[in-house]
Design a protein that fits this description.
191 residues; alpha+beta; 5 helices; 7 strands; 29% strand; globular
């Protein structure tokens, strides 16, 4: 179970956060944000809230989107509130430089191949950070005002502390057996 001691948020596309909290996804493919610093993206936290970002055309770039959901988002700078449904624990990380291994992950995620390829070859070093995460659904939606400090191309943000009790009461998005199955498939591909 998650035991968040700091209110850290991990920024990811809204539909990806939904897929994680609904148990449709257990991996995150990450290249990193523009403001990640000289060393690039790092998994700095082992437990975190899933902070949904409003990327306007994310539905076109995914093979799965939640049913009966909005598909058009206003610009992030017009946002006034945040709704968080889930949190996650980081179980294992791989830095993958072999495109064939990245391509073999397709049955385990919801990103279209062109998005994955774009992230893989984003800069001089062709690679992706692949994270196996155990997602949890909060007992209720956590709603709070949006702050400008949440914006920008960064992966990690600090959220209000009042969400911590919700994380402590979260329930697994996947059963232990289903999560073990996904984990085994991922490890068979990446080693």
């Amino acid at each position: 179970m998650p035991n968040l001691t700091t209110p850290t948020g991990f920024k990811e596309w809204s539909f990806v956060c939904d897929a994680l909290a609904q148990g449709r996804l257990s991996i995150i493919l990450r290249k990193g944000g523009i403001h990640e610093g000289r060393g690039g993206f790092e998994w700095k936290h082992r437990q975190f809230f899933l902070f949904p970002t409003w990327f306007h055309n994310q539905a076109e770039k995914l093979s799965w989107v939640p049913e009966n959901t909005q598909r058009d988002f206003p610009p992030e700078e017009q946002r006034t509130s945040v709704d968080i449904d889930g949190c996650a624990t980081l179980e294992q990380v791989w830095k993958v430089t072999d495109w064939d291994k990245v391509a073999a992950l397709a049955p385990l995620h919801i990103w279209n191949e062109d998005v994955v390829k774009e992230r893989f070859v984003y800069d001089d070093e062709s690679c992706l950070h692949i994270a196996l995460v155990r997602a949890y659904r909060l007992p209720q939606n956590w709603h709070f005002p949006y702050a400008k400090s949440y914006g920008g191309c960064r992966s990690w943000i600090t959220l209000p502390e009042e969400g911590l009790p919700l994380a402590a009461a979260a329930t697994p998005a996947l059963s232990d057996e289903a999560f073990a199955d996904v984990s085994a498939k991922l490890k068979a591909i990446l080693g």
